[in-house]
């Protein structure tokens, strides 16, 4: 959207202004004062990062209602060199808006992004049982389409939409699930790792070595034997044949935690294809509880012990 | 689409005529001569089954490129009483069509269902780098929209589209992946189980009992200790909070196979919520190889042995 | 030792009167008033049971210091048709005795069963550093040998020895470990199972199906996936080649507990050779804590659920 | 037995000349020309090593018929600083010998070490059904007792006994199991590790961290997840209470093998008490087959990969 002077860093996000992704980017202190580049899909956002047009891109990765965002997960799995450097949560609530002067009773056709549309089904069935639906490319585009076309009388949009566009609120909180939240990640090409905070996540993508039964079990044991908890496990088709999957995994902890580093070693030995997507602070800042059996000192003590054996020194 | 006389069974499918779902339903011998009811989404198809309007509905459950069809998986997880009674595979290939007289060079805007659009990206980028996209509700709707509106010059559609509509072929096999295939299931309310054929699948949906680390491992061990292989494992958010998942699972084998029945017992004891979605013949008719250690006779021998112990009879 | 009139049941034990085995048999209420037959080794005791000469035999199976009694474990593994019907604990303490008039300072040579001798090493090294050792066939035989031969001046014997023989106490509690205890089992050919008391043990002997890596792990998972705890796991060579073992196992619980019965089923399917040695009340009468996940009702509920699926009934 | 001049290294073994342990020591090239010190039990042999009287001691650790030698295993578990530096196998066969002029028919009482006696039961029962038994401290002592006492007419002894003593062969190969073999280890205080040969064993002793169910399973997973096979697993009571065990374990491979070193690290983190007893060439010189997934290069590649991540270098 905005052209950046040489010195100004650029951040890409799914635009335009007012989308949930825009809300997520507003949580990034470093993005304040930077140039914001609104793009139309995840591929474009990641292209910006890969080409150097942007220093980072904000992309949605998981929705508490809809699940993993396939396009994002598949893009991260296939574009090498990307790193997640931060995680952000945005509550997902929806409003119904119309052109000024419209009443709820006037609504015949609703413009809405298909995902938003699916999340407001209960409201629509009870309040507007006979409506029609026109799909839109984004939640904000659904709203702005009301201003350029008369195809629809109302649109499903994010709450702040009336701050940016001359539209009228017809109904608020129309989502089926009042606790819905979307998880976003900030992605860059930086290879430096964010500091360990004690409240971190590590994201990886792993392929199983083959189809032998029990392979997934074997993979999960790499985490279990090191006391590493998973907060996300999603299977995604590799795409070459039915029944071939890769796994998108979030681990509790930072690669600077010994147990996480050791689990990654085990995983790398097990799998022909492990992608490290990054270690970064959790959005909820919740400290990871580590059982003392898996503390850093336990790992370094064991290494010292083994080093003594290998070097022929007496045990302490 | 068609009203059924009392005696004629009705099958629901994602219409209209010519969709991939329609192709899948053509593979069902029982549907020949029945009434076919084209509906506009999975929810409507399953409503037909639940209400008794249809004896069965054909729905897409997994795509080799896009992964699990979330709407289907979530519907099966939340609507009780449904059973999968058959599985069908349809190769997914796409054509580009236009109104008669259109040339490829004339195309500015393309009507396409978003999933189909995503699967033809490579062709579009190389042949029509500057095109626009108008989303459509289905692959056939994209094509028929050309006949009622001039918004787009071309549409992405299934190969047979020109058999049913006066449209002209502009390009064939435009999908990125020549081996793409979609898996469909036929769903009914019948509680009777299809016969065991030796080439069967069993579908279930399972929730983990709680968030304790290692729970997923524990669940998978229920299969591993009985030699039961999984051909599908998908996590889907339960929807009430981030980080809470249910698992959609396909097992090799029929619930009439002792090892599968025993694994289901183990799973039911482990999980507070197991849904049995059905045992049914695999689309590919590939016989399941069972290691002799997990054969039916091994299970019945063990039961006979235990029965002898419990009844105080001498061991044979 | 004693001939039994027809109506009197006979119990065999490692004699003579005064041994630890005799102490164990004194804990059996049913043996009161019965004929007691003192024998000279485990093989003889089990022969008595197999031939019908005795209704039951008391045999030592494990010592808290020395470990499993190999002869007992191997006999149980190779003689079919035996059942453990009770478990008894006897504290193991030793005294040093001599002929009347002997003083500790007079002792040059000590008669002792090798196991007892090994358990009193610390006392002997500090009090009689230059003694010699004459091996004896049992603890009581060591003591009575003093009365028939002058080879030794003292003997290691069980505490009650001076009640039965004209010997003099030279030192008490000479065992290295004050908490030493020996575990005995009462063995019969009864196939009826002792009642479930809630504080039970189940004993089995299992061979692994082959030498493939991970087999032992696979065996242990049969218990872990049903919440069944092991209180004993001993490997014993099968005897045909180095590296081939069978496992002597005690489980917490009774075969009438659903989780134990199900674990035995799993084990029987896994192993070519499982011997069920019995379910019987624990000597310590300590109730087994069962996690609610593995309660009997969980097993019967799961079976009811599966039965509903197999019979085509709607789920409750 | 023999006093060593300052420059001559001393080897201790269970004497006297002619025992199976002596046969084992004859297999050690370094022991040729050294002083051999015959001792009377394992404790004495290890004392020699600990005190520096001997450079090494040969001790029996496992018998293919009788199982682990408890005294050896317990000594290794409780004496710190010992290392196994070699493994040797001696076939175990027995002869029956008498004083010159004795015939088999004259034999009334047999002198025999209890273990040897137990291994010849079948021969004795069929040929000398009414014999008596006098226990002896070793196989050779049984034979030599014939020369100093008339208590017995015959003795069970190792095959070479008539080379060393004026005794007469009454019967050969009288052991029940023609394939019986005893495994010996050479123990020293050297901390230097024997070279890796590709046909190595690593011996360890491990205590479980606590009594929680599944702990043994957890321990075994440390090996399974690294493709490390166990050739020996023996439980030995720790001795302080019933139900508390340590495990004597032999692993295939050398601590210089990456997978073995990594398994030891995992074990050390898991267990409060791991004793490393040594890595040494197998007696049978059989090369260990390592699945390529667990080769050394797989471990070093994984470490290189992780190092790249930690240092912020791009992935190769």
Automatic annotation (TrEMBL), chains A, B, C, D:
Q: Which UniProt keywords apply?
A: Amino-acid biosynthesis, Aromatic amino acid biosynthesis, Lyase, Phenylalanine biosynthesis
What pathway does this protein act in?
Answer: Amino-acid biosynthesis; L-phenylalanine biosynthesis; phenylpyruvate from prephenate: step 1/1
A Pfam family hit: PDT
Q: What is its EC number?
A: 4.2.1.51
Q: Name one GO biological process term.
A: L-phenylalanine biosynthetic process
InterPro entries per the UniProt record, alphabetical: ACT-like_dom_sf, ACT_dom, Chor_mutase/pphenate_deHydtase, Preph_deHydtase
Any idea where the ACT domain is? 204-281
User: Membrane-crossing residues?
Assistant: none
Where in this chain does the record put each Prephenate dehydratase domain? 10-189
| Top-rank taxon, per record | Bacteria
Site (Essential for prephenate dehydratase activity) location in chain: 182
Care to name a GO molecular-function term for this sequence? Answer: prephenate dehydratase activity
Enzyme kind, highest EC tier: lyase
Q: Which NCBIfam families is this protein grouped with?
A: PRK11898.1 (NF008865)
Protein's name according to its UniProt entry: Prephenate dehydratase
* Species per Swiss-Prot/TrEMBL record: Microcella daejeonensis
